[in-house]
């Protein structure tokens, strides 16, 4: 298990989740959990994914998601889970 | 499992509140480079630094992208050069060649500053110490990235007043030699009482002789994050305020701990310490003075400032200590003038003066930091200001420091511009009365009575 947190923030539009999930499926990344919320009019989505069996390395996935985000008009960030575990769990 | 609120909170800290890791600093021992031949010594120093720190910048960038957390600086500290160069250097110029080597090595590995052009003279100066100190003006002037520090006093040894006197003169020389550039070389020189061996922050970082061969020290920051948290509890009691600061400091420090462990693993260099400091930058909202205002002061410097700062500093430590397995360095709030927009505002409003800043240094880390004073301030007066700061550190058993910038050709009302992270600073008035007879006595001030604990 190699957990990574993907966040998508931007203006809500049709097909954001579909596009991100299609990319992840094509890259061999398994989605463990998805949650989303709207904060002051902005679409916020968080996905917990497992990149252990991914066909690409972390840097490539991160770069490609960044580009995908640009094409949809949202910001997509890819972060290893430890930073959140460290900050929010004792 | 991590929830979306937690993820958004962390990312907001980075994106809106300037949360960052201020520095990953590799401490490198140069004791095994010692040689009586100056050329060989320089070669060994260059090779050691460029070998040990070869991957520092690459690893720093990789950690940045893995966690989306900015790591602002990657730096190096080395063994105090007065110890390393003593056998080979016969003149201040010989020492300056080592500074050239350090500068070259820093550029080769891509770090923005390298510290350790230092001497530890809290009780007495060897010939090598004195030569190094006398070489500081030329060494800082002809290098770009080298930082220098001198430890002048400690609780155990008292204050070396000969060295305090000499440093007053040297600081003026450093200012004079860089007068075309607003005396900016002074930013790279700091004097200490009780200097820590594992400080990752510049200009005062050096790799102490009690340290291992190489070590990773990390300095975290986050005044913006603390500021935002304090703003949310406006009007609440001290209990609520303190809890809020503590929790925030915990979170900020955890990021530093993670980065330090990761850097240590990836570079295969042992982890030393996390330095829990609130280090401000001129960016809007990234100010320690603004936190003080948010706690309830009109300006930093208003009555109550020392108490507010003492409380802030203590809560940052209490939150931070639990977040990291090893805490060290300076660990406390920095109160530089030029690097903190809120502090600059306080000076310009007439809310804060040198004497109040000195009082504040009794309860936080560092001391009179990045303070521009008139260029015609006598060397003995600068020594007097340093001696006061050393006395505070000595008696209170804490680190204190002075980084003063006598701006040659400028007077009160003018300002000096350094640009970037260093910002600008208004020239502050200095007490005009003389302390020359006091400084010129020579010798040292004995250690205080409470240092005799054996």
Automatic annotation (TrEMBL), chain A:
CDD domains: ACT_1ZPV (cd04872). SUPFAM superfamilies: ACT-like (SSF55021). PROSITE patterns: ACT. Pfam families: ACT_6 (PF13740). InterPro entries: ACT-like_dom_sf (IPR045865), ACT_dom (IPR002912), UPF0237/GcvR_regulator (IPR050990), UPF0237_ACT (IPR022986). HAMAP family: UPF0237. This is UPF0237 protein CSX02_07290.
TrEMBL record, chain B:
Coiled coil: none annotated. InterPro entries: UPF0210. It holds the Pfam family DUF711. It comes from the Bacteria. SUPFAM superfamilies: PFL-like glycyl radical enzymes. Homodimer. HAMAP family: UPF0210. This is UPF0210 protein CSX02_07285.
């Amino acid at each position: 298990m190699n957990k990574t947190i993907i966040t998508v923030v931007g203006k809500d539009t049709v097909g954001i989740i579909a596009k991100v999930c299609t990319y992840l499926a094509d890259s061999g990344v398994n989605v463990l959990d998805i949650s989303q919320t709207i904060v002051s009019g902005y679409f916020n989505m968080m996905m917990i994914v497992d990149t252990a069996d991914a066909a690409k390395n972390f840097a490539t996935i991160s770069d490609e998601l960044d580009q995908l985000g640009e094409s949809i008009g949202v910001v997509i960030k890819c972060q290893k889970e430890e930073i959140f575990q460290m900050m929010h769990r004792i | 499992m991590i929830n979306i609120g937690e993820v958004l909170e962390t990312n907001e800290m980075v994106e809106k509140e300037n949360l960052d890791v201020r520095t990953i600093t590799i401490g490198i021992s140069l004791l095994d480079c010692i040689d009586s031949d100056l050329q060989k010594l320089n070669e060994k120093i260059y090779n050691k630094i460029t070998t040990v720190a070869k991957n520092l910048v690459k690893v720093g960038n990789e950690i940045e992208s893995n966690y989306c957390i900015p790591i602002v600086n990657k730096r190096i500290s080395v063994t105090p050069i007065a110890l390393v160069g003593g056998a080979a250097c016969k003149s201040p110029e010989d020492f300056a060649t080592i500074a050239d080597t350090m500068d070259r090595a820093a550029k080769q590995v891509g770090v923005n500053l390298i510290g350790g052009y230092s001497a530890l003279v809290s009780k007495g100066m060897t010939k090598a110490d004195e030569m190094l100190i006398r070489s500081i003006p030329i060494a800082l002037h002809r290098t770009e990235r080298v930082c220098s520090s001198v430890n002048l006093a400690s609780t155990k040894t008292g204050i070396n007043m000969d060295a305090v006197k000499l440093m007053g003169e040297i600081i003026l020389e450093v200012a004079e030699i860089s007068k075309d550039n607003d005396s900016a070389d002074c930013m790279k020189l700091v004097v200490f009482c009780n200097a820590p061996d594992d400080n990752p922050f510049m200009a005062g970082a050096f790799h102490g002789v009690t340290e291992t061969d190489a070590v990773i020290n990390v300095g975290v920051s986050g005044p913006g994050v603390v500021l935002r948290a304090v703003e949310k509890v406006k009007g609440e009691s001290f209990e609520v305020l303190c809890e809020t600061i503590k929790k925030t400091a915990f979170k900020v420090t955890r990021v530093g701990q993670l980065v330090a462990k990761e850097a240590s693993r990836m570079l295969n260099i042992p982890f030393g310490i996390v330095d829990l400091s609130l280090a401000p930058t001129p960016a809007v909202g990234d100010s320690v003075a603004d936190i003080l205002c948010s706690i309830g002061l009109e300006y930093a410097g208003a009555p109550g400032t020392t108490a507010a700062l003492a409380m802030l500093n203590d809560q940052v430590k209490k939150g931070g200590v639990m977040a990291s397995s090893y805490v060290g360095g300076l660990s406390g709030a920095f109160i530089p003038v030029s690097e903190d927009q809120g502090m600059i505002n306080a000076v310009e409003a007439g809310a804060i003066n040198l004497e109040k800043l000195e009082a504040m240094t009794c309860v936080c880390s560092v001391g009179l930091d990045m303070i521009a004073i008139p260029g015609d301030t006598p060397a003995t007066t600068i020594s007097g200001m340093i001696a006061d700061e050393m006395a505070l550190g000595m008696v209170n058993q804490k680190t204190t420091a002075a980084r003063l910038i006598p701006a040659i050709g400028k007077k009160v009302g003018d300002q000096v511009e350094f640009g970037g992270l260093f910002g600008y600073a208004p020239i502050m008035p200095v007490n005009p009365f003389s302390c020359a007879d006091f400084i010129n006595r020579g010798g040292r001030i004995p250690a205080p009575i409470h240092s005799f604990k054996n």
